[in-house]
Amino acid sequence: MSTAYEPVIGLEIHVQLGTRTKMFCGCELSFGDPPNTHTCPVCLGMPGTLPTINREAVRLGLMIGMALGGELDDRLVFHRKSYFYPDLPKGYQISQFDRPLVSGGSLGDVRLERVHLEEDAAKLTHLGESGRIGGSTASVVDYNRGGTPLAEIVTRPDIHSAEQASSWLRLLRETLRQLGVSDVNMEEGSLRCDANISIRPVGTDGLGTKTELKNMNSFRFIEQGINAEVARQTRIVQDGGRVEQETLHFDPRSGSITSLRSKEGSHDYRYFPEPDLPPVAVPTELFDLARAAIPELPLDREARYVDVHGLNDESARLLAFRRELGDYYEATVAAAGATPDGEAAPDGVTRPAEPADDPADTRRQIANWIGNDLVRRLTAEDADDDAAGDPQASKVTPQALAALVALVRAKSITRKAGGQVLDALVAEGGEPAAIVERDGLAAIGGGDELRPVVQAALDANPDVVEKLRSGNMKPIGVIVGAVMKETRGRADAGAVTQLAREILGL
Amino acid sequence: MIDRDTVRHVAALSRLELHDDEVEPMARELSAVLGHIETIAELDLDGVAPTTDVVVARSGLRPDEPHVSLTRDAAVDQAPDASDDGFRVPSPQA
Amino acid sequence: MTDPTTLSAVDQVAALRAGDLDAAGLFAAYRERAAADDTNSFTWLADGPDDAAAAVPDGARARSVDGPEPTFDVPADDALSVRGLPVAVKDLFCVTGVPTASCSELLRGYRPPHTATAVARLQAGGATVLGKTNQDEFAMGSSNENSAFGAVLNPWDRTRVPGGSSGGSAAAVAAGLAPVALGTDTGGSVRQPAALCGVVGLKPTYGSVSRFGMIAFASSLDQAGVLARDVRDAALVLAHLTGAADPRDSTSIGWQGDALGLPSADRLDGLRIGVPTDLLGEGIDPGVRASFDAALRTAEELGASIVEITLPHARHALAAYYVIAPAEASSNLARFDGVRYGNRAAADDLVSLYTRTRHDGFGPEVRRRIMLGTFALSAGYYDAYYGRAQQVRTKVVEDFATAHEQVDLIATPTSPTVAWGLGERTDDPWAMYRADVMTLPQSLAGVPAISIPCGLDDGLPVGLQLSGPAFGEPRILDAAHALERAIGFDGTPPRSGRTGEGGAGGADATSGGGAA
Ligand SMILES: [Mg+2]
Ligand SMILES: [Zn+2]
Fold first, then answer.
1. Domain locations in chain C?
2. With 80 as the cut, is the pLDDT of residue C54 above it?
3. Cβ atoms of A59 and B90 closer than 8 Å
4. What CATH topology corresponds to C14-49+85-313+395-493?
5. Cis amide prior to C165 (ω within 30 degrees)
6. Residue B29: pLDDT above 60?
7. Which residues in A lie closer than 8 A to residue B94 (C-beta atoms)?
8. Out of A52, A55, C359, C450, which could bridge B17 as a Cys pair, Cβ 3.0 to 4.6 Å?
9. Between A48, A50, A89, which is nearest C250 by CB?
10. Which residues have CB atoms below 5 A from the ion given as ligand 1?
């Protein structure tokens, strides 16, 4: 009988902070600029140069710590972490060691170990036939990236599946994005993730030997990489072997995992206090500035949408985890006069004289229209990009969407016609009422107008009428379809069914 | 007190080549110096905090304002082996 | 008129201000003397006063986006002007476009794109760079025998060492090749060569002079200092080195003491001078001891009281220093890898590139200290060595604080011996390291100290060290000035005799070799 194993996963996330200048010198941050055009004697590690701490990086680090509920240190203490590599100009990285800026905290169901500040390494490009690591004979170093401020976020080993890892990382990324501390772009490397992975028999508490899987640069690769490593470890253990502690690289193309560093680097980083940066108190005004800059964060917003707005979990999460959608939603709700009691409407939105008749239902409808209809229409053009489809940048104003939802809720137009109105709004903007008028999309009113059309459809389908009379309501769709065709979608399906029953005396 | 293997290990950590005939003298000299240094092992230092610096006041943090960086040519001017793209080194994986 | 190089720096700048002397002429006079140097004190000489300040190619230096180069607060007092004063600068101070190697083979030919703040401050005050002076490689040594540019010869006796690591700066001032020189002091590297060469050496409070642009040896100890013919000249230069904190050095804290001026005291009434008896027990040459005791008697005659004190942990400073300094050095020197600057050894793979570059580029003493420092920081040894050494440092700091509750200044001989023969201690590192036993405690404590000549022993200068609490420089300078006048030391080395192999020094003088 084979034992079942569960993965135990901790993540280490390096986040490039959105400062103007580097961590320890005044060179401007850049991405994609020509190599070695953003360097100075300090970030080239020239003899005689010294680091100076970027105040803004500290402020952003404090914001992360506050948002994640960690304990903040009031002193800045840096260490040197020594190893030789061409991407490290001084032969050591200035990092935090035994006194991180932030200790503890949590995000969702994952606890955090620490958040600390450090400097990024430079970029090493491998020349040669393949252009990639294996088989090349020379490399060149571009120090533009070297010295970029990083926050390293380390979780406790609270994650137990690849899927949990990637969904939690999405939450973290959105939280950081909404904090405004980083542009969190994984492709450009401003958010990078390593995973510490071990396995243990299900139901036990111990921790197995862990391996470190480096630098996976997309959510898909993180899932694939963790799954591959868990499978590899499980195979080893089931075959009676032992997992070795090592650093690994996942190649998404082949799905294979290779050891990244040779044994020679059996690491002895020789951490010691950075003598060029004596410990310094974090200025108290930085705490205040950081605290004042923290917006409502995704998890808090999600809870508010469920508890106060009455949205379902799925809508709430979608709107909360994409700040621009949430902001647009709240503006639309305000324009509809459906802002919950006690909540302030966002600035710049004109509220109607009359509040919505059923504010909770109005909010749910608005959330639906945004989450389903509008987002789908806006992302059609530039798919693939998470940030695409920002309704705030579209031609559809919150007032227009609020008016559209009101028309549908009042049954002045059908939901289907509403879709046509939305198409027109996305394409050209404008007012829903005017579009309904112009395109003749008004719902066909009560029985007087609709009854003859239903009668005609029944007359034209005697076989259907026979089945309906015998109690089989299934073919009613044929009648509804015929009416819709005749009215170009302006009829309400429920009303059609109701009229058919009346006419047939059912 | 510091043997040849330790000397070789420390030399590897330091990225210092030591020729075979340099290992023994290095072990001897380091051992002699460490012998003197180890007199501090006898001091009673329980509970004494370490002093990492003797700066009597603290400097502030740097404002996040850019300076003018070096030009590319100035940056690579002193490099033993520069290419258009940067500083050339043998590939770490070669 | 008289040879301007016989004047003190203070008198030279006064003559320049009065128009009795012209700066180009003064520079040329020193340039000529330095070019004829037979002590191997210089590694590079400027052609003219503007050489080191010459326009730097576009883009070759970092500056603020919104403004020009950083500006420096220059003393407004005319009496403190250095306009037109030539200054010799220890090789490890970076000067834009000027060869700067810290006397290492690895950096031979390196021309930095930046200028050390200490040098830039003097330039801002109108001083000119005369040349770069020889030193022990990366400031590691007490004899100036560890230089890729050859050993420096002591102007008092060319068969003897000048002390180190600022040996070239001390010898240049002693031999009259420069009016003043910049040095650096990590464990005594300004004070000890000053003592051995019969000149004044001042190490200011740690943090008072920016370290930006000084090629680091040990960051928590390194401090720029001055070598001068007399105390007033040292004070003149100090007034320019200090000022507002340097935003490019996080350990620079700006001048926080009383205003600096030229010392004028001629009495020591009421001054309490402590003599740490526990540090003076053994290993001090009788002739050194005799000169020291005579200096103490002079101090008493000037009105000072001599108080016996103890610095119980000072004798452990040597051991602590030889853990802390090499540990920091091993890390500071990790950047010398042959990738971005400096000389690179041929190699096909990256690890060999590093190991050969560093083997061939560093001299034996530097390699030894890198090994020692790496060992002290490595896994399993950190607590026993580095951690403990820092605890000893705490005790040394406390010793000085306690002592200064009792006394204003503390006096010791600067060096337990006078200058020794070239090559004499190169086989015994610890004997070499012991040369700094009197100067290391103050370095660990970060307090200011000065060495002034207080006599001769067998024809060789003896130094007296006076130290005080942080930012106690004004009082130290006053006391040193009064004592200097009363002692009346003649700092001119004999021009004949004792010259050993004569004027053959120069760039091929004995190689560093051996230990220290
Ligand atoms: Mg890190
Ligand atoms: Zn820079």
1. 14-49+85-313+395-493, 314-390
2. no
3. no
4. Amidase signature (AS) enzymes (3.90.1300)
5. yes
6. yes
7. 136-138
8. C359
9. A50
10. A 152
